[in-house]
Amino acid sequence: MKLELRGITKRFGSLVANDDIDLTIEPGEIHCLLGENGAGKSTLMNVLYGLYQAEEGEVLLDDVVQRFAGPGDAMRAGIGMVHQHFMLIPVFSVAENVMLGHEETGFGGRLNLDAARAKVREISARFGFHVDPDALVGDLPVGVQQRVEIIKALSRDAKVLVFDEPTAVLTPQETDELMTIMRQLKSEGTSIVFITHKLREVREVADRITVIRLGKVVGEASPTASNSELAALMVGRSVELTVQKEPAQPGPAGLIVRNLDVIDHLGLKVVNNVSFDVRAGEILAIAGVQGNGQTELTEAILGLQPRVTGEISLNGTSLTGLSVRKILNAGVGFVPEDRTEDGLVGQFTIAENLMLDRSDRPPFVKNGNLQLGFLAEFAQEKKDEFDIRCESIYSRAGQLSGGNQQKVVLARELSRDLKLFVASQPTRGIDVGSIEFVHKRMVATRDAGIPVVVVSTELDEVVALADRIAVMYRGSIVGIVPGNTPRDVLGLMMAGEVPSGVAA
Amino acid sequence: MTTTTAPESISASLESATIKSWKAPIAYAIFTLIAILLFVVNGRDGVSRFRLSNEADVIQLAPIDNPTRLTCILLVVLLIAITVYATWLSSRAKRVPLWLTILFAVAFMWAFLTWAAAGETIPITGLLLGTVALSAPLIFGSLGGVISERVGVVNVAIEGQLLAGAFLSAFVASVTGNPWAGLVAAMVAGVLVSFMLAVFSIRYIVDQVIVGVVLNVLVAGLTSFLYSTVLTSNTPLFNSPPRFPRISIPILSEIPILGPVLFRQTVIIYIMYIAVFVVWWGLFRTKWGLRLRAVGEHPQAADTVGIRVNPTRFWNVAIAGAIAGFGGAYFTLGSVGGFTKEMTAGAGFIALAAVIFGRWDPIRATLAALLFGFATNLQNVLGAIGSGVPSEFLLMLPYVVTIFAVAGLVGYVRGPAASGKPYIKA
Amino acid sequence: SNGDSTEAASDFLPCIVSDAGGFDDKSFNQSSYEGMAEAADELGVEMKEVESDTEDDYAPNISSLVDQGCNLIATIGFALAEATSAAAEENPDVKFIMLDDGSIDAENVKPIIYDTAQAAFLAGYAAADYSKTGVVGTFGGMQFPTVTIFMDGFADGVAYYNEAKGKDVKVVGWDVEGQTGSFTGGFEANDTAKQLATTLIGQDADVLLPVGGPIFLSAIEAIADSGKEVAMIGVDADLYETADSGQELFLTSILKQMKSGVYDVVLAAGNDEFDATPYVGTLDNDGVGIAPFHDFEGKVSDTLQGELDDIKAGIIDGSIEVVSPSSPVAK
Amino acid sequence: MSEATATTAPSANEPKRAPEYEERSRSNEVLSDILNGNFVISILAVLFALVIGAILIAVTNEDVQTASGYFFAAPGDTLGAIWNAVSGAYGALFQGSIYNFRRDGFLDGIKPLTDTLTFATPLIAAALGIGIAFRVGLFNIGGRGQMLIAAACAGWVGFSFELPWGVHLALALLAGVVGGALWGGLVGLLKARTGAHEVILTIMLNYVAFYLISWMLRTPGLLQAPGSVNPKSPAMLETAVMPEILGPKYNLHLGFLLVIAATIFAWWLLNRSSLGFTFRAVGENPNAARVAGINVKNTYVYAMLISGGLVGLAGVMQVLGTVTTGFSAGIDAGIGFDAITVALLGRSKPWGIFAAGVLFGAFKAGGFAMQAAEGIPIDIVTVVQSLIVLFIAAPPLIRAVFFLPKQGVRRRTVPSVSKEVTAK
Ligand SMILES: Nc1ncnc2c1ncn2[C@@H]1O[C@H](COP(=O)(O)OP(=O)(O)OP(=O)(O)O)[C@@H](O)[C@H]1O
Ligand SMILES: Nc1ncnc2c1ncn2[C@@H]1O[C@H](COP(=O)(O)OP(=O)(O)OP(=O)(O)O)[C@@H](O)[C@H]1O
Ligand SMILES: [Mg+2]
Ligand SMILES: [Mg+2]
Questions:
Q1: Checking DSSP bridges between strand C109-114 and strand B121-123, what pairing results, if any?
Q2: CA distance B134 to B394
Q3: pTM to 2 decimals?
Q4: Could you tell me if residue D324 is inside a domain?
Q5: CA of B134 to the centre of ligand 2 (A)
Q6: Statement to judge: residues B143 and B107 lie in one domain
Q7: Nearest Cβ partner for B395 among D190, D211, D341
Q8: Which of these, A365, B97, C43, D185, could form a disulfide with D305 (CB 3.0-4.6 Å)?
Q9: CATH 3.30.360.10, domain A3-235, yes or no
């Protein structure tokens, strides 16, 4: 099916998210949309999908103007979408999620779950997924959840499929599988819109590329364009794609972790007998597919996990069993994985967020009183230093874009007197310009002689930053390898295989 | 490159460790201690008689005569045994099964009744019959709460829905002389309150808790005002609703113990049985329920599959109001005639507690409401047989039991994820 | 006594403040209101009434009435005693009627109190005599003295009967000795009250004495549902005459003549004959009493009425002592 | 009120890349809020609620009903009757709450205003407590229980000890506040330790407190007045009674000054103190608070202690200020519930609560006069109050009713009471 968007303009209040956008997708083509965070890609797709109503412009399918009052209409017209943020209901089973919205029913509205299960099995078989229709979605690893999203989109025989950043949570292998599926769908005549920040993927699979910046189409690129050409087009300036760093000057071991176990609320050992050291002035990256215990490991270091055994010490003093506050005060900086949930208080101002984890002591608090004057100066300084783009330091943090939110968290953590820096997914979902900035700051931290732990599921990031890499699989460390280990070896380790010659 | 470990699927289960939870044994131990102090150390003599049948019953069961002291001692030994077993289970990091808790509760309650009724008779059917009656408005209210919160609208306004239902049903049934008309009016009243809740929380995006609280106040004020100005101006005409008669269901009503308790009731109670089943079945087995729960868990996800979130919320909140309205009718058409100011007396809040206690599940919420009704009626029975405890402490009983149950057994509960959050489309 | 009332009454404005029960409580607020309304009618003057909801309301309600120019204010219930006392002191030219509380001793306050235990004693005796199961029951709204005084008198009457006749009629729902018993926790005719009555019936009680405003309505329902033959005893007014339904159930009623008590005082005040001596309703002055048996005339034993008359005489002449911890005392 | 920040981008083409935004201070936001019509909306909301109240008064008025029976014969009669009913009611409301023209002289005439402030006193104190709990994400419906316990503690100290002036009052005050704090803190503790939901706990504890106090009040040797059989406490000793700050002519007592102090305290606590910062952080996002080293469970306990203490202060005002002649189990007078509405109307902000409390105090004071003068049930006041809260919370409705121009999309932050920490 041919899809055409004409003159789409979408405003949120006074913010113009899409500004007179034209886009055509030919039948059976994979069309990539590129753009920084907040460029308006998702918004455009949501307009196409009927989720948002555009102020101006029209959607045409096979040259027929469409009127979508809601996603129901769009789906009926043959449009399917895999959303950037999972649109799955965690407490429902896979089959229930897939059937939702077009349920087959029996007497009295009784759900025909068997039909839904059969459908899930059928699609799973066709694309080589292994998905249990009766599993609760909330219990599934994100990679599998992504497949459920895809099954959902496919179960309705869509003629146009939109994939909005589907690869953000996939392993390299899973990403490759997805590419294969996309090509398979394309060969069946489905048109595909593919949104991603990973330029490698774009060049691999795209037939055509459209770049959006600040709500406008700024140009088309061919799949043969180089990474830096694409990046420049996206950001509007040239971007450094590799992290410039000197070889590490490691000092003595700062963080020592020995025989660490973390047990979750169901009694599962999500971190299993993990031991490692991080030396002052080096970056240890913890690689692995999401959900293999990395999150819990970092949370255990910060004292956020209730059931932990083993030893954690920093510069010779034990951190085990201390409260979060004590651990923070011992000089541990922490960037949590989910910045909106765990890193920031969305309703608080930027300034308030900048003092969030020092809310009980000088310089921000004296005798129980907030030092608002000092806070204002401090926040202004950090806003400039970290280039936080905002109206003022009194803007709500929740209103910032993802990259800027991440900068607030970084500014807060890096402005403390650190003895250890732990960052989880520091660049997830943020644009290349911001990534560049974040990476620079992390290397600078290392160079200041602080041990740094980075958890990332992005191999690009791991390779770019790490002096050493620990790969986690099912709660255990598969091996710790040098920073220059080839990607394919890392990929295998992420799948739990220990290549010979690697110390386990 | 050789591999030493075979690749496994990511979703394969992890090694499991042991979590020891001492909550259950501690709770058991506390109650066992109370039992020892009260039933053994402070034991009583005599015979405690549990009467299982009424004179009118076709099948007569002989009353159970418990020698008070002996029964108490035996039961306390059983309680100690259960506590020891639970401690052993916990020390081996095994879960304490639900049946054990139920056994413990039954044994404790039996011991308590035996102790309290030394030399007296406890009418077991009466105790249970009253339980059903006292729970009825709570059950209707909590069903309304469950539906509303499952679809994503926090329903603090149950009290208002009950009160509005009671008021309008009394008025309409009186004027028409027809209790069925009153029942319909009660539904309408509940729906009207729901409409306010829905309009303000969905259309005007006012915090749902605020709307709920304020609606309770509004309905209380409005019904009291109209009661003083209208209903009392001509009580025989405006506030003398006919009651539904009690209907005995043939055969079923003759089942020993349960028959008189469950099947000699007014039509409102029979509607309640149906409502509990229908709401449960509907929520978990039908398209309606699936969509409803989807909207309450993740409205945006529901939207993306073509479910219209706000209309779904609106109409289901209305249904919730209709069901809660029935509960209001129970006050005036099923129980004691006539409306009085603020006659629901906090039942809506208890129903709200039952919703949370029952973890937003219609069956569990019903059980929670029944527990509350049981404790209330136990208080009645103990007061009547003269247990010597000051009446205020007996009146406290249902509330204290609920606190213990919530703090000791339920603990942390999580409602529908999107409950209380407005859905705003761009 | 109506002759010269007109000019005295012309600027006479009687007013009444209820306690939290409100004027439709089927109890003392309502009786007092009716008494005043009748008197006002008789005098041909207007009256004003205000209801209280909470404890906060008493003082402001009284002072609002003073502001409205009321010159006689009846305050109903012991809860209003302090507010009344304070208002009386502040407004010496306004007259007050204080119902159910005898603690105020002031020139302009007339306490009206009732020794209902005396009448309840008779009712208890009658109930014991009537009971076929040998069990009679009572329950109350809340454990207030104005409530338990009925229960005390009732239980004492039963005990007197047992002693006199060598019987063993049992009282369920109230223990005089320990002052503990059955209460609904409020004064609403609700399901709790109904279940309480049901429970008492389940204890084989075949006479019920529900004490507290409209809760007798719940007892009527409970009796109807039980299918048993259970009689009731009313409180305050002769409920056989005033209740909208269930008349046939009333063995008798314990009368507390508040309506006529208030009526008399209002009428007197309207005729400038107000005096502040406390009025204590007793069997002697017919301020309390028991109602006729009405439909039960033929069901009670032939000798009962005679025995009751003797006991009444005994109570009046002091040979039978009826004391309740809750008996009112006038200062 | 810095809650609504309209996103104003200087250039439509460059929605996010323009770093040169004007700096806007908080006071500017308050100003712009008023200019944007929040103040006007509030006034109109009150007006609209009063109009609905007037309709209710009119249709239930007997004269109006009689006159409307022959409406077409003499419509003037009906209109006149409506005018009489409504003006009589609201006139009495005004005279009872602000200025009574029927009294001679300003000093007498202004007494109603002081009554308004007297009634506002416990309302504000309790609403501050409930508002603070709201800010921490806790819904404290337990005002009744906390007030009762506090009243009992303060009352007990107030009538049983003979202490010097000043010391006695301070001690009674302290006892009450501590009592309320502990009763509230119990909820926080149970929630923190067992995860039990505070809504259930507070509801249940209301009843427990009520029956506990009822029992103590009728048990000689506990709270019952010696020599009396009524369930009532003795009167407070002179030394424990709050002095009347405007002289004996007016009822306004020291409690009002205490409540001003409490408001300042609450404002300082929430906006200027470290503890308040943690309160708000936990209220807005307990997960982030936890990660930032804030002990969320302890915060719940502290918040409920402070909340209970402030609600307890209201109980103290009742026994030592409003009804000093001895209290019974109804001494809370529904304030614990009214305070929820006041806290909501004041948007859980201390000075907002203060203003809302004064408004509700006025309604309460005026309600008595309205009932006494016109025989209108006081419940009408409840109706109007609740409508005001609803309308103020829904500005678009008011705009529609009064044909005001629409405003751009603005999202209002409201006290979130449904957030919880995920159990980890
Ligand atoms: N519902 C909304 N209300 C207000 N503003 C919105 C809304 N959704 C998106 N925006 C804003 O519109 C702009 C475009 O957002 P959009 O999600 O389309 O970006 P994107 O290109 O998908 O970015 P990303 O790569 O981060 O997903 C951003 O500035 C965003 O903050
Ligand atoms: N309803 C109101 N009536 C009178 N003054 C008010 C009201 N609301 C706020 N104010 C004024 O605003 C100032 C700040 O009030 P408040 O503490 O309630 O807001 P805030 O807490 O600073 O806002 P935020 O929660 O955004 O920090 C006070 O000094 C007060 O003068
Ligand atoms: Mg996007
Ligand atoms: Mg503030």
A1: unpaired
A2: 16
A3: 0.85
A4: yes
A5: 46
A6: no
A7: D211
A8: D185
A9: no
